[in-house]
Design goal:
- The chain is an alpha/beta fold.
- The chain has a domain of 261 residues: FAD/NAD(P)-binding domain.
- It is built from 20 helices and 22 strands.
- The N terminus is likely disordered.
- The protein is globular and about 75 Å long.
- Strand 10, helix 9 and strand 11 form a beta-alpha-beta unit.
- The termini are far apart.
- It binds NADPH dihydro-nicotinamide-adenine-dinucleotide phosphate.
- Its cofactor is FAD.
Amino acid sequence: MAETSNSVLDNDYIEALREKYREERDRRIRPEGEEQYLAVSGKYAEFVDTDPFTPVTPREPLHDEVEIAIVGGGWSGLVTAARLVEAGATGIRLIDDAADFGGTWYWNRYPGIQCDIESYSYLPLLEETGYIPKEKYSYGSEIAEHARRIGELYGLYDKVVFQTRVIECRWDDKAKRWILRTNRGDEMRSRFVVLGSGLASRPKLPGIPGFDDFEGKVFHTCRWDYDYTGGDVNGGMAKLADKRVAIIGTGATAIQCVPFVGESAEKLYVFQRTPSSVDLRGNAPTDPDFFKTLEPGWQDKRRENFNNVLMGVPVEEDLVNDRWTVRRRLVERMMAQGKVPDMQSLMREADLEDFAHMEEIRRRCDEVVENPETAELLKPYYQRFCKRPTFNDQYLATFNRPNVELVDTSWSHGVERITKNGLVANGKEYEVDCIVLATGFEMSTGFKRRIGVEVAGRGGVSLYDHWSEGMRTMHGHSIHGFPNFFFVGLSQIGVGPNFTSMIDGVCHTVSHIIAEAQKRDLEEVEVTAEAEQAWIETIRAGTPAVSPLEQCTPGYFNNEGQASKTVSNYTSMLYAPGCNAFNALLAEWRANGEFAGFQFRRSNDQGGQ
Ligand code: NDP
């Protein structure tokens, strides 16, 4: 596809597009916002309560004590554990619901699952493990394998309790220990707790009338039922050969699995409410010579370079050089014109650049999709970062298959109704054998519901009461009133596209604090109320009063079109200067050794550092 610059779009055209974006947004807004979805609890709990991949191994409940309990064996827990091992910390125990490491990459095994961030930047600890990813963009099974590699290299398999969900963490102020209760009847005591259980792992079920009436098969993409479909992550789902399948949703997950289901099913209906922007992927095997050229420290540098390009910071070379990083064109053009790419002018010019980029995305629909009506329906009319951009070289072409049909549901706010035999859209019933829910995950519902662990700190205060007016942390990881407790998540840290790069500084810092506390034999480490407040003010200062995402088409980035009305949406709670600035801030915080903002207490101590 030829690269275009905004100079090819005249002002009238841009104004017409602006109007079109507004119209498309307005007709998608649903007054009930996030309430349109069903929670996976009560009769819907089965969508997450069972592990279709590994039978549960019976065991006796644990009543014991460890030093450091890490809740979650996904990247947050794994990387923190690895850093703790490197720092010489002892007495680590990881606890996870799944039967292996990997978190989201354990549970999500839908066909075609892949990471849309290049593997050399995404996969954590590549230098430490010496692993060379097979391709520029890794598939899910390679990513899950890498999680297991980290578990093995750092000796974490000896330290983990799988198939166990922590349901409560309660601080015992007398004993100076956390008491962790689980769904397996355990009562573990621990000096430190790291909560890294993920904030986006509760699937969303669409609250479509008649949802319970359907008599066929229904599953969510995060628990793919290969017993029903046959095949595996690579496709080949032979059992679908005589099945009519409906996929609801066209977000990043659907974009990846639709081509595989299209290949296998007798008939596939894709129910679309808002089209994704589907950019080129261009995956390629890793050139082993490329890895030979890399110097120690290359992965941090590469991640920083990627973040810089996305933030519009001029770089000498765009190391990642893919369809995420096309923004460099804008910065280069501005510099060639002698303009300084400061944030304000960058935002202004980026707005124009965005129209040009989205025109490329829309043109691609016309180029690939043979049926012009289908091509038109697949065109996204919104700014690029209103939704997470997607990248795939097979998705659009799948609609050229005779057995695949796109069903537009944008005029009725989604699928109208589900019946015992199928789905209704635009007044027409589509009879199907199976419904696949590619409807995503809760991103802005209350913290308690999403985290799923009751946390009671000093004086029995619930974490969720402490956060009733919005999340409160210092640096995203430490909370006043919750001694020896650390949170590793995606909120109140530096914004960036690469989640593993976003959490990297937090994993380092949390392990640094805990290792130091063990070394000094401290009874309690706790962030002060003042330090917590100061960080909240820093976050607020970088957050515009009216979110620019408010103008976006509804989705989880903007709390379904109500961006300003939420206290728990992660996109409204990020450190605006970005991931690199945040990780640098934490590195400096660690390096100066002052533990600013923390109170350390020994037994019979009055406090101080
Ligand atoms: P999303 O939330 O992105 O998409 C959900 C889809 O379901 C949307 O298309 C939504 O439409 C649609 N939908 C919801 N309700 C209805 C309804 N009633 N009728 C019709 N359609 C409906 O979920 P995904 O699982 O695709 O992605 C979740 C997260 O996982 C994202 O953060 C994504 O980036 C991430 N992910 C990352 C990958 C990676 O490579 N790193 C790969 C896959 C996922 P609408 O847009 O109109 O709301």
